[in-house]
Amino acid sequence: MQRTDANQIQVTWHWPRKGESNAGASGTSTATFTWNDATGQVDMTGDVPPV
User: Does residue 51 fall inside a structural domain?
Assistant: First the structure.
């Protein structure tokens, strides 16, 4: 997780693809979460790991 602005953080997940171990995980997903003053909610852009 990294703060990219005063109202924004970026999260990067590393996850195992099918058949991989956790130690050998090659999957990566990155999402950015931004506080939206106009709506009073957090906006997300990007991807999260698959379920």
Answer: no
Name which of 26, 32, 41, 31 is nearest 8 in CA terms: 32
Asked whether residue 16 is domain-assigned, the answer is: yes
Tens of pLDDT along 14-42? Answer: 999 999 999 999 999 999 999 999 999 99
Q: How far apart are CA 4 and CA 15, in angstroms?
A: 22
pTM value surpassing 0.85:
no
* Residue-range definition of the domain harbouring residue 37: 2-46
SS3 content of the chain, % helix, strand, coil (to 5): 0, 55, 45
Q: How far is CA 47 from the centre of its chain?
A: 6
Paired tokens of 36: 């939206």
Tally of domains in the chain? 1
